UniProtKB/TrEMBL annotation:
Source organism of the structure: Candidatus Woesebacteria bacterium GW2011_GWC2_31_9
A Pfam family the protein falls into: GDP_Man_Dehyd
UniProt GO BP: nucleotide-sugar metabolic process
Keyword Ribosomal protein recorded: no
Annotated protein name in UniProt: dTDP-glucose 4,6-dehydratase
Listed cofactors: NAD(+)
GO function terms (MF aspect): dTDP-glucose 4,6-dehydratase activity
Amino acid sequence: MNILITGGAGFIGSNFTYYWLEKHPKDKIKVLDSLTYAGNFETLRPISKKIEFIEGDINNRKIVSESLKGVDTLVHFAAESHVDRSVFDPSTYWQTNVHGTLTLLEEAEKAGVTRFHQISTDEVYGELPLDSDLKFTEKTPYSPRPDNLYALSKAEADRIVMDFYEKTKMYITISNCSNNYGPFQFPEKFAPIVICNLIDNIKVPLHGDGRNVRDWIHTRDHSSAIELILEKGKKGETYLVGSNNDRSNGYIAKKIVNLYGANENMIRNVSDRHSNDRRYAIDATKIIEELGWKPKIGRDDFNEGLKETIKWYRENQDWWRPLLKRKAMIMDSSKTISAYISLDRESGKTKFVFGKVEKNDDSKGVASSVGKIDTEKHFVEQNLIRYEIVIRNLESKKWYQNSSEKIKKEIKSLGINPSTFGYVEDLAGREDHLDGDTILSLEKIEHGDPKYGIYGIGSWFEVENTKKEKRMEGYYSWGWGPKSGAKLLVLIKRRGEITHLATQRELKFPTGAIEYTLPGGLPTLNESVLDFIVRSLQKDLNLSVANNDAVLDQIISLGRLNPDSGMTNNKPNLYAIVVDLSNELYTDVKKGDKFEEDEGIVLWPIEKLSDLINKCDDAYFLSALTRLNLMEIKGLKL
Ligand code: NAD
């Protein structure tokens, strides 16, 4: 076999390269890797004479097509793989994981590669409930809304791979594997953090309640599964790979601490990580029964696998110590290093640091990252250009000057984080007045809980009216990310016809004026949320409905909208729901044209919607309405 392994200088790719060389010493092995902060040529040095190493980016067509010369089999590991980092540097994740995969497929087809294997992850399926026995199988649909950009980009890459298969019928397979452990793993991932911290007598951080579950598999078992898929896997098929070894992070931390011979008080609970899905577990029946795979280390020898890994990190400190100093650079167009991402060992989290890297800092990972990043389009770069202006604007605001030092510090720290910069930019645009009242200060910032499916920020201001009466006013900014919530139009149906659109009039914080808006701005749309909306509508309209029944008649999906005027990159899902009020006893409900100055729910007769459109400047509302108008909804004539 003449095999090209992308990402072979990373954790799993290098383990696979060693495995393949040992099992198939006669094969010609090439490794293509751009040596990002996560790639390490030192890992391959001992076998560098037996393989061909090509330093290059999978997005670079020239390098890819050169590397593919004479190759019949391509195993694609190369990826940006760390969930925490994807929050700070989304464009690189998209560029490598999605575009890079497509480039490889296209070039592989041109080069006549006969076998393409895509390495994927179980994270594409989303999270499973914590206290359940459910497991992912090949039939589990991919999560419609993966929780983080790593998972989202891998899912997108897999879709591209399957589309490519459908179009070309090239011999393609995919494997979605669970959480790997073993030697050569970058010390930012959980198992190496625990081990390396113990070696240095630093407390072991355990995120959240420590109950999050992952299915742990040794990289050697992962490699043997890939080998079998390459030998016997059917084209166009997906295989799930896992060791039936689902364990909580708390269990893993304790187990490693015990095997290491340390005291359990070395474990320290710290706040949760971003996008820490609750549980992943794999049902590997298909690869076991159809291909005859059997993990060698598996669940039974998990202790041995962990002991061997601990031993490896103890004995190979020269390998991992330099990596602790590595910083992944984020560049602006003048190629001045302006921000970097590094690891905080105490919290086990990735830090985004705004500023230049000192000369003495290890810059090993820099050269490759520099060439790789598309600086023109870079997410952070745009923030950098605007940052100074935004901060100056912010500091000129009276409400900001009156806010506590603690709040000011928090706002500024949100400003240097790309995923929350838009929020600060939005704050900086706030005037000192709200519809004639004075905004005194920002009193509280509340962070949305990702576990409810959305990440966002609530801001609470102290406001004073002309009579010097004080009150609190708040608003919510939607966060960046795939789970950006839902907004909806509520339509009212009576006796088979859609007759009204329900709108809400309220004091809108962004403009400080009373405006029409959509009643719904929701973290997600599910049965209980919908039921709540229908009941609230009934209550707000003061409707007395026979049998107490306002009925949810229809849910219409209107796609996603981008962007929000609040935080950057928000893409809420738009829906219209139809509520049947046919059983309503009193037909004389409020009409929009009569209650101009009121706040609260206002019903607009469908035939008068053009009046509303002229008065409304809510982007969600207008987009949702336009999209609705383009669909032929039964009983609705806009
Ligand atoms: P890693 O971060 O350790 O290694 C990734 C490698 O890819 C690095 O050597 C890096 O230099 C290289 N790379 C990144 N961008 C590149 C680019 N644009 N061009 C060329 N090379 C590039 O990751 P890993 O943990 O070894 O994961 C490897 C693969 O396995 C990934 O596709 C990942 O999604 C998948 N996977 C990982 C796990 C896990 O537990 N780590 C589980 C399931 C699947």
